[in-house]
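From the pipeline queue, job 12 of 40. The input is one protein chain; the requested action is below.

Action: predict structure.
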Amino acid sequence: MASSPTPLLPSNPSENRFLALLRRAGLLDWFLLGLIGAVVLAYFIPDVGSKASPIPWKAITTAGVALIFFFYGLRLSLDKLKAGLRNWRLHVVVQLITFVAFPVLALVARPLFAGLKGEQLWQSIFFLCTLPSTVSTSVVMVSIARGNLPAAIFNASISSLLGIFLTPLWTSLFLHTSADEGHLWGLAVSLTWQVILPVVAGVLLNRRFGAFAEQHKGALRISDQVVILLIVFTAFCESFAEGIFSSYAARDIVLLGLGMVGLYLAIFGLVWGLSRVLGFSREDRITALFCGSKKSLVHGSVMASLLFPATAATGLILLPLMLYHALQIILASMMAQSMGRE
């Protein structure tokens, strides 16, 4: 009997493991390339996605945002949230890092951003710092690093809910949003119809349709990503059409990327030190690290479209978030892999 052929060994085992890790996290797919493609496409055809376009982008993205949060609520089990309340010290640390430490760091760094161009970049960074943590990425990284997975699920879920209220609050205090222009009522109505009511409806239907949502979470995640790509595309179309990026060179983008790496490492070091001082177990420390250092591109894209609806600078607002999103995937994947081997 002929022996079966021996499979070829990977030429670079370490690189192969890293790629496998990204695939396991669901992050090495078309989405990151899609984000780059959406920006490039917006650069070449800005009129297609701008306000001058005959396509009703606003109605399409509004409906998409509502669906994102409805299916998020549909997968949110109140019983699991109640069970997760026991480890309250860990939860308090994660939420304080997410919604207090991040914005405070941005406020401390504000004097470093001089001039109109620097002020615009700072506003974009501050908006990033007010956002909640991710759900899927945080949970996956905690699982890879062998941390406290139930606590990660709880913190990521609670962070998303708190962000609905805390992100608009922070931005209304320090940024020029629609709230500063006397449109608080319109913002409240938009948040209610597009975010709060869909989440509440989903949670109420969790017992009946939650299992269905879990079974089809892959397809739901793709639909979420499509909506985010549309929001990013239209935001950058408007920015390119108005010439928002004309004063920014490639060097500025590189420096911004380095700044996002520094922000991530600063928060990571802060959480690590605080966790050790509080005597967290290794599993809880890992959960605090990966849940507290993430920022959600989904919530950021949605909140940018709600909080900055009348400005062409929405693309600039999203730029630091997109850079941070890509960098947190790479850095967190490397760290999670290292911790998982310990």
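Job complete. The CA atoms of residues 9 and 16 lie 10 Å apart.
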